[in-house]
Amino acid sequence: MSTICETFFKGVKVKRLDDEGNSVNVYNKPVVVQLEYDPKGMLVKITEESEQKEFIVCKGSEFARVGRKGIIFKLSTETLLLTFASDEDSNQFTDAVMKIKADKSASVFSERTEESSASQYFQFYGYLSQQQNMMQDFIRTSTYQKAILDNPIDFSGKVILDVGAGSGILSFFAQQSGAKRVYAVEACNSMAVYASKLVAANNVDDVIKVLSGKIEEIQLPEAELVDVIISETMGNMLLNERMLETFLHAKKFLKPGGKMFPSRGELYVAPFTDEAFYMEQFNQAKFWATQDFHGVNLSSLRNPAMTEYFSHPIVDTIDINICTAKTQRHIIDFQTALKKDLQRIEIPLEFHMLQSGTVHGLAFWWEVALIGSNVTVMLSTAPTLERPAANWEQVRCLLSEPIFAKEGQLLTGRVLMVANAKQSYDLTIEVKIEGTNTVSSNTLDLKNPYF
Question: Which end of the chain has fewer CB atoms at under 10 Å, N or C?
Answer without folding.
Answer: C
